[in-house]
């Protein structure tokens, strides 16, 4: 008998299959490795592109007339203050502290009236006021935004709640001071409550107007596509009202600072409003200006932060407006 030679077709087939398996494994490994490198490069490129975009926007801002017009505006304001008080000495400005007096007091290591950027008490007042604003603003947003959404979304709910809302809204925060002191114990909670009130009304009202401004065709289109009522509320009503919501939040934080000063003047041991009121009582006019300028700076920073957050969360709105202009 003649035996079959070794390494026939069966062995060749097995070797071919093993080779194919090894090639497939190697190709998958190389593909995964290449994907990892690509992802890493993508993340690096993303960080680089974000940084480059930031520098590009800063360069465009410097090339635009905005910073120079802002500088001219501040120069005119400070120049008029200096001339009216210290040079011309106009009758209505005779008792006001001059620009040089306020700046020297603000930047002094040994201030005459005990408050400057080198004093720890100065930053304590800023911190207390900022903390009160943060608490009141958070409560106003957490309550006002849902209330405004439901006021604009449900007609029946609006019929019950909106008359009471409109009845209480015109009442100024100072009118709530006696009730706030009676309702809440201590000196901290009444101030937060007074700050919360004005901020809450602005947030809720703008949110309601945002819901009512949404085109009905979007709601009908979502319903025709099979969306349920809560899905329409989530995917149409809330995103559509976002521009009005963030506009209301910017107004809300400014009104909150106004209400905070009123509350701290009546009840409070620390804060920028307390500084202004105490300085007026003790005839420390430069300290009044320092408190007012500090209040304006901190208020501007908080409003700018909310504006930046709104622009970040509504990038789709910017793209939509850009596409509309191209058309």
**Can you tell me the CATH superfamily of the largest domain?**
MetI-like
The share of residues in helices is over 70%
Taken as a percent bin, the fraction of beta residues is under 5%
CATH C-level category of the largest domain? Mainly Alpha
Write down the Rg: 32 Å
CATH topology of the largest domain: MetI-like fold
* Mean pLDDT across all amino acids: 81
> How large is the count of helical segments?
12
- What's the architecture of the largest domain, going by CATH? Orthogonal Bundle
* Number of extended strands: 0
Low-confidence parts: 1-10, 19-44
Task: Map the helices and strands.
Layout: H1 9-63, H2 66-87, H3 99-106, H4 120-153, H5 155-168, H6 177-183, H7 188-212, H8 216-224, H9 229-266, H10 272-281, H11 285-313, H12 315-326
Helix pairs in contact: 3-11, 4-5, 4-7, 4-9, 4-10, 6-7, 7-9, 8-9, 9-10, 9-11, 10-11
What can you tell me about this protein's structure?
- 80% of the residues lie in helices and 0% in strands.
- It has 327 residues and is mainly alpha-helical.
- The protein has two domains: 63-95; 97-326, MetI-like fold, CATH 1.10.3720.10.
- The relative contact order is 0.08.
List the defining traits of the structure above:
2 domains, 327 residues, MetI-like fold, disordered N terminus, 80% helix
Summary, kept brief:
This protein is mainly α.
